[in-house]
Design brief:
Length: 212
């Protein structure tokens, strides 16, 4: 069953919509972004979400001290690193990490084996930010991607209308959505529910022997 992460959570209402719809993870952005959230607000939301939901913080080139401090304050399960963090830096952390890689061409995937975290995230390299731009990349790059060391998280321009195709090609462990469940830049309850229902329907199709 493909997991779902709803990223760019900015208030408790949106977090609750995601949880109620069946999301497996929520993401808080602490890097430069129009969806950036304060540590205090993220901590309050995190404390209101039950422990079964993964809480993931998104960072770009933050220091080790900042990462570990925010993990403790917000009770994050993972830090998601979208900057120039080296394998050595990531491995030095005392918190679980997800290395995000911006993909513009297939060879960008070559760096993934250098990271030893449980997960890797692939996102589009198009747009002004290190993620959350609402743009996608060619999922065919992932068609033959195999890793015995990582669980793959797919991000970048996903929405209800294209997530079925994305999953059928890339076969990720988890899909990560943000702008695809927004209206006017704000999280939309119905879009969150529709997106997660679409992903769950893919599970049903695959169990019957088909991925449609």
């Amino acid at each position: 069953m493909t997991k779902v992460k709803v990223c760019g959570i900015q208030d408790l209402k949106a977090a609750q919509w995601a949880v109620d719809a069946g999301a497996d993870a929520v993401g808080f952005i602490f890097a430069e972004s129009r969806r950036r959230i304060s540590v205090e607000k993220a901590a309050a939301i995190s404390n209101s979400i039950h422990e079964g939901i993964l809480k993931i913080g998104v960072f770009v080139n933050a220091s080790k001290e900042e990462l570990e401090d925010i993990v403790e304050k917000v009770k994050l399960d993972y830090v998601q690193l979208h900057g120039d963090e080296s394998p050595a830096f990531c491995n030095s952390l005392n918190v679980p990490y997800i290395k995000a890689v911006a993909v513009t061409e297939e060879r960008d995937l070559n760096i993934l084996p250098e990271y030893s975290g449980e997960f890797v995230l692939v996102d589009s390299g198009k747009g002004p930010y290190r993620g959350g731009n609402g743009t996608s990349f060619d999922w065919e790059y992932l068609k033959d991607y195999q890793s015995s060391n990582h669980k793959l998280i797919l991000a970048g321009g996903l929405k209800k209308d294209n997530v079925r195709m994305a999953v059928s090609i890339a076969k990720p462990y988890m899909v990560d959505v943000s702008s695809g469940v927004e209206s006017g830049g704000i999280k939309d309850k119905e879009k969150i529910l529709d997106f997660i229902n679409e992903v769950r329907a893919i599970k049903t199709d695959s169990e019957s022997g088909e991925l449609q």
